[in-house]
Amino acid sequence: MGAAGGIASIVGLALAPVTLGVSLTLTAIGGVVGVAGGATGTICNIIYDTQQKHLRETIEKITSDFQNTINAMFENGAKTTCLSSEAVKTARLSSGVAKTARLSSDATKTARLSSGVAKTTRLSSEVAKTTRLSSGAVKSVRVSAQAAKAARSAAAFFGVLHK
C-alpha cells in the first residue's frame, strides 16, 4: 500500500501543471494511502511480533515441561535401578539365611546323632564287659564239667576196683 500511495503522489505532482492543480488531490490521496499503508504495515508488524512472542513463550513452556518430565523419568529410572540392586542384595541375603537354617538343622541332627553314638558307645562297653563275664562263666562251666567228668571217671574206676 505504501508503494501505491507513493506512486499516486508522484503521478499527481507530475500531472499538476497539466491538470491545473486538480491532480494535487491525487497527490493528497496518495499521501493518505501511503500513510495508511505505513500504519497498516506497522500494525501488522506489531501483531506479527506479538504472535511470535506468544508462540515462543508457548514453545518454551512445552520444552520446559518436557525437560521436567524427562528429568523425573531419569530420577525414577535411577531409583528403580537402586531398588533393583537392593532386591538382588536381599535375595542373596535370603539365600544365605536359608543356607544357615539348613546348616543349623544339619548341626542339630549331628548333635542328636552324636548323642546316639555316645549312648551306643556306652552300651558297647557294657556289652564288652558282659561278654568278658560270660566268657569267664563259660570257662568256669567247662572246668566244672571237666571236674564232674573226672569225678565220674574216678568213681567208675574206684567202683570197679571196689567191687
UniProtKB/TrEMBL annotation:
Pfam families: ApoL (PF05461). InterPro entries: ApoL (IPR008405). It comes from the Eukaryota. One of its GO terms (biological process) is lipid transport. One of its GO terms (molecular function) is lipid binding. Belongs to the apolipoprotein L family. This is Apolipo L3-like protein.
